[in-house]
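In response to reviewer comment 3 from the previous cycle, which asked for concrete evidence that the modeling workflow produces usable outputs, we include below a single protein chain processed end to end. The sequence was submitted unchanged, and the resulting structure tokens are shown without manual editing.
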Amino acid sequence: MTQGESVGLWLGDETGAGSGRLLSATRRINLETRLGPLSGALGVLQCATAAAHLESGAAGNVLATAGGPRDDAAAAVLLTR
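The workflow returned the following structure tokens.
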């Protein structure tokens, strides 16, 4: 990602992520807040949501995150056009 490209959508749980500093101008969606616990399906639904965002022509790339400070592991992927 170059300096001129931005993250337009962040898919993940904001809790403990320093969201005030990390992506202050980015639209955020926590799929588990909307749909309940998703376990292994979370990544699949994040990819589908990211594809819809990118295909719609909406501005910016998509950052999908899972896990965090209160979990055993964490993962992130940046999806771009």
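The radius of gyration is 12 Å. We consider this sufficient to address the reviewer's concern, and the full set will be provided in the supplementary archive.
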